[in-house]
């Protein structure tokens, strides 16, 4: 077969060969690859680092912010820890950021060369995005300079659906969450997020437990509290005359107003003043309303029994209403201890032999009907698990 010729008489193969050997104008890039320099670099003239002593940076952040390769970090010491990504625990490698910066300066030929390299990349980023707000660079190279480097990795697109802000990147919180009932996990975290734990002095304008490591201690204590609770039913009881009657009573529950002076009377509530160990007041549904609640619970027990189809599920609806209207979970920060003032609604029968004090502090002791209700509940011995919500 004859060779196909181009218009100039050369073959296509010859044309391709000629094109391959044609000298092209080199592409200018910002990267400056490390070269073997026979002349040693005088590092004594390099400026002082602005990175704090002991500051660490993860391997991924070091590669992204300093534009390094994994091979550049091979001869640097590191520590292995754990983090949470996409809903699972994975290893994380932490490097001394001063070592990483030094390696970068050596790679580029000095701090000024790295400055120029970053400046070129920054200008390109601004030209494309309009500003440098999210330009990846070391914190100490940002315009303010010397910023404290706090490692808080944002969830990537692949992990967004599994990301829990109350776990963050803490493997400890991840494990605690796995062992804590979901309803209690959410209730405890709501409390830690509340204004009760907001402090400008301690939290730098944020919540006291806004950081993962600060939340680990109280949530570990909550895990201990979780062991006192009975299983929570997955669904509410189906409608029935007895169940509907209980729900009607609960819909009319007196509630503490959001803003009130502690110690003032509240409609539908009984106020008790305490002078020991500290001056305090406690609030409770008044006896008339408690009589109605206990009468409705007794009706549920009479119709549906004390099993999962009756009392064991119905008690949770009373517990939720009491927590909402009167009092529930609280965290004693100085004692590192949780208390659930509504927990007695989930307890079984209170008896003599060490448990009579629990009866006296429960709502059952405030109502004559409550005493009858207590006698109808399943018996729990003193060697059973601790009272619900008390440690």
Provide a descriptive summary of the structure in words:
Keywords: Nucleus, Zinc. Residues 1-44 are annotated as: Disordered. Residues 1-34 have a biased composition (Low complexity). It is found in: Nucleus. The protein is an alpha+beta fold and 391 residues long. It folds into three domains: 49-141, Nucleotide Excision Repair Protein XPA (XPA-MBD), B Chain A; 164-226, no CATH class; 241-376, no CATH class. The protein has helices spanning 12-21, 59-66, 97-108, 111-129, 171-179, 182-193, 200-203, 212-226, 241-251, 287-304, 311-325, 356-361, 368-376; strands at 56-58, 78-85, 88-96, 269-274, 280-285, 329-332, 337-340. The chain has a three-stranded antiparallel beta sheet. A two-stranded antiparallel ribbon has the order 4-5. α6 crosses α8, α9 runs antiparallel to α10 and α10 packs antiparallel against α11.
Question: Can you give keywords for this protein?
Answer:
391 residues, alpha+beta, Nucleotide Excision Repair Protein XPA (XPA-MBD), B Chain A, 3 domains, three-stranded antiparallel sheet, two-stranded antiparallel sheet, 13 helices, disordered N terminus
Short description:
This protein has 391 residues and is α+β, with helices and mostly antiparallel strands. It has helices spanning 12-21, 59-66, 97-108, 111-129, 171-179, 182-193, 200-203, 212-226, 241-251, 287-304, 311-325, 356-361, 368-376; strands at 56-58, 78-85, 88-96, 269-274, 280-285, 329-332, 337-340.
Topology:
Layout: H1 12-21, E1 56-58, H2 59-66, E2 78-85, E3 88-96, H3 97-108, H4 111-129, H5 171-179, H6 182-193, H7 200-203, H8 212-226, H9 241-251, E4 269-274, E5 280-285, H10 287-304, H11 311-325, E6 329-332, E7 337-340, H12 356-361, H13 368-376
Antiparallel strand pairs: 1-3, 2-3, 4-5, 6-7
Helix pairs in contact: 3-4, 5-8, 6-8, 9-10, 9-11, 10-11, 10-13
InterPro entries: DNA-bd_dom_put_sf, XPA_sf
GO cellular component, one term: nucleus
Keywords: Nucleus, Zinc
């Amino acid at each position: 077969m004859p060779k196909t010729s181009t218009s100039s008489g050369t073959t296509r193969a010859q044309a391709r060969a000629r094109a391959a050997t044609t000298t092209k104008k080199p592409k200018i890039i910002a990267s400056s690859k490390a070269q073997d320099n026979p002349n040693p670099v005088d590092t004594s003239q390099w400026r002082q680092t602005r990175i704090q002593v002991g500051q660490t940076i993860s391997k991924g952040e070091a590669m992204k912010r300093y534009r390094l390769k994994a091979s550049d970090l091979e001869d640097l010491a590191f520590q292995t820890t754990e983090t949470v990504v996409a809903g699972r625990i994975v290893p994380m490698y932490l490097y001394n950021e001063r070592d990483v910066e030094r390696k970068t300066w050596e790679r580029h030929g000095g701090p000024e060369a790295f400055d120029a390299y970053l400046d070129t990349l920054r200008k390109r980023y601004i030209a494309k995005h309009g500003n440098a707000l999210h330009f990846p660079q070391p914190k100490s190279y940002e315009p303010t300079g010397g910023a404290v480097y706090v490692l808080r990795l944002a969830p990537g697109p692949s992990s967004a659906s599994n990301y829990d802000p109350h776990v963050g990147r803490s493997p400890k919180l991840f494990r605690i969450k796995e062992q804590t009932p979901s309803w209690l996990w959410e209730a405890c975290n709501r409390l830690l997020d509340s204004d009760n734990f907001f402090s400008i002095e301690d939290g730098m304008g944020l919540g006291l437990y806004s950081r993962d490591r600060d939340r680990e201690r109280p949530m570990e204590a909550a895990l201990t509290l979780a062991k006192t609770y009975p299983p929570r039913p997955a669904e509410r009881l189906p409608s029935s005359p007895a169940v509907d009657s209980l729900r009607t009573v609960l819909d009319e529950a007196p509630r503490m107003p959001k803003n009130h002076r502690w110690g003032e009377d509240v409609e539908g509530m009984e106020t008790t003043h305490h002078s020991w160990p500290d001056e305090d007041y406690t609030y409770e549904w008044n006896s008339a309303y408690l009589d109605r609640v206990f009468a409705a619970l007794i009706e549920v027990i009479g119709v549906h029994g004390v099993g999962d189809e009756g009392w064991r599920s119905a008690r949770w609806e009373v517990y939720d209403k009491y927590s909402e209207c009167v009092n529930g979970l609280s965290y004693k920060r100085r004692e590192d201890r949780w208390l659930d003032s509504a927990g007695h609604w989930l307890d079984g029968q209170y008896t003599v032999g060490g448990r009579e004090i629990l009866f006296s502090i429960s709502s059952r002791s405030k109502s004559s009907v409550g005493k009858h209700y207590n006698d109808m509940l399943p018996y729990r011995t003193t060697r059973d698990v601790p009272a619900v919500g008390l440690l």
